[in-house]
Amino acid sequence: MATTDSYRSVCDRFNVGRATAVRAVRRVCRALFIRAPRFIQWPTEDRAVKLMRGFERSSGFPKTIGAIDETHIRINAPKQNPADYIDRKGFHSIQLQDVCDHRTLITHCYAGHPGSVHNRRVFRLSEVADYLNDDDAFPEDSHILGDAAYEIHQHLLTPYRDNGYLSGKQKKYNYRHSSARVTIERCFGLLKGRMRSLLHCLPMTRVDSMAEYIVACCVVHNICILREDEIIVVTMPECNRENNRNCLREVRRNAGILKRDVIMNYL
Fold first, then answer.
1. How far is CA 260 from CA 51, 63, 187, 257, in A?
2. Which of 34, 80, 181, 215 has the fewest Cβ atoms nearer than 10 Å?
3. What is the pTM for the complete model shown?
4. Strand partners, 70
């Protein structure tokens, strides 16, 4: 996971056959994947309050419990439906969506969608989209931060779009927002810096095992953070049932816009 060595190199170093090495990697990945809920946990109650304080100390942005973004992990072209895995850069990849705290500790990860799937769809299919409408998941009316690709929500705040006419307060809001959200960029940098197999091309051919492998890498990343094993990276009308969801979505969106304006004036 942590190097770009080939199976041939690893097998030669440890004097084992390729089948043994592949089986060992799968067993370890499976064990880490099963234990993921122990190391990757959504913040609640007292822990959520600590994260709010941590984000406010580091960036000045209030009531934040996480930052969200997605990244693409390159893979070799799968044998089945390879075109589905071609991302906007022309590479075959699968997607990883993470939420992290101010320490770059991952609090939620969701992996496995083909590279061609739009990140908004990935978000809608993830548990985080369900969390947004659960006020218990966001104590004290807290929120996570996302970039402009996400839709604003009461519990997911995005920056103001810069159309050239932003006020001074809006620019200050965007600056604070960016200062807090940059932690997810650092998180991906640290994750791929530690787990260098994610940086180039996954050494795997079975698509059904790739998501498990990536989640296992996220678990190792969190263990490193918890053990303070730091590395340095450079950041780069009445609604019917069908309309009910649309109405709730609009209410939450308007609440997010109002909250963003309140925070802008607060800053």
1. 19, 12, 24, 5
2. 80
3. 0.85
4. 97
